[in-house]
Design a protein that fits this description.
It comes from Prosthecobacter fluviatilis. The chain is an alpha/beta fold. It is built from 8 helices and 7 strands. It has a 7-stranded parallel beta sheet with strand order 3-2-1-4-5-6-7, with helices on both faces. Helix 1 crosses helix 8, helix 3 packs parallel to helix 4 and helix 4 runs parallel beside helix 6. The protein binds nicotinamide-adenine-dinucleotide.
């Protein structure tokens, strides 16, 4: 594994209790960062902390990203534990229930937007002022290739991730002269529990579109996010990086 230097950096990873977020946290700890895992699932957070603590300093915050006050409390708890925040990885997200757009329950549409799009906005709202004060920051937003292409039976998810791409581009421009760099990653399919939320038909459809003919691994996502979170990533902001096994998008 090539070493990426995150020594003395402090990272928040939302949705860090499992899946891609857990792999990102592990990679960052191995690279020298202290990590605060934010997740709504307190039991999974405890398990992740027990597993990862041998690698470095791990703190956890139980948070509901749909609530700005919950996010503000988590940010305060992170600063209390580490004294600063250098890196924010907006990773938490849900797939939602697959359905045709016109058959999607409006409440399900709102739920997906609240977690996938409002969540990253709430986190940026709470954390960017601290980064501005410190004069340093790296923000990585986990969007999805669905946000660029659209996916049938997943308009809510696709629209929420398109919103994350636009949030990334807008914030990147706003912070371009502030030494705070903002980028997005657009994975195709990465093997995690999120796949359990999808129908087999939907999974087969997505696999059929990946030239490498396989799904990605969590560690492959973590490697890209770790680089985007490091000082080595210094002249690219508001950019979107495909993680898609050759699935080409604009
Ligand atoms: P996952 O389901 O394994 O983990 C998501 C985590 O987010 C969970 O620990 C969950 O408890 C947490 N979470 C959910 N709602 C929350 C809330 N309201 N507040 C705080 N935490 C909450 O998912 P994953 O597969 O690891 O996906 C991570 C990210 O990558 C998501 O944004 C997802 O949309 C994106 N993504 C995943 C894939 C894939 O194939 N796995 C593809 C493209 C994009």
């Amino acid at each position: 594994m090539n070493q990426i230097d995150l020594k003395d950096r402090v990272a928040i990873v939302t949705g860090g209790a499992r899946g891609i977020g857990h792999a990102i946290a592990e990679r960052m700890l191995r690279s020298g960062a202290g990590v605060c895992l934010w997740d709504i699932d307190a039991a999974a957070l405890d398990a992740a902390k027990a597993e990862l603590s041998a690698l470095g300093k791990v703190h956890t915050a139980t948070v509901d990203l749909t609530s700005i006050s919950s996010v503000e409390s988590a940010a305060a708890s992170t600063i209390g534990a580490f004294g600063k925040i250098d890196i924010l990885v907006n990773n938490a997200g849900i797939a939602g229930t697959n359905a045709k757009t016109w058959e999607t329950d409006p409440a399900e549409w709102q739920r997906v937007m609240a977690i996938n799009l409002n969540g990253p906005f709430h986190c940026c709202h709470a954390v960017v002022p601290h980064m501005l004060k410190n004069g340093y920051g790296r923000i990585v937003n986990i969007a999805s290739i669905a946000g660029k292409e659209g996916n049938p039976n997943a308009a809510h998810y696709s629209a929420s991730k398109a919103g994350v791409v636009a949030l990334t581009k807008s914030l990147g421009k706003e912070l371009a002269t502030s030494n705070i760099i903002v980028n997005a990653v657009t994975p195709a399919v990465i093997e995690t529990d999120i796949l359990k939320q999808l129908t087999q038909q939907h999974i087969d459809y997505m696999l059929s579109k990946i030239p490498m003919n396989r799904f990605g691994k969590k560690e492959e996502a973590a490697a890209l996010v770790a680089w985007l979170s490091s000082e080595d990533c210094s002249f690219t902001t508001g950019a979107v990086f495909d993680l898609s096994g050759g699935r080409a998008t604009y």
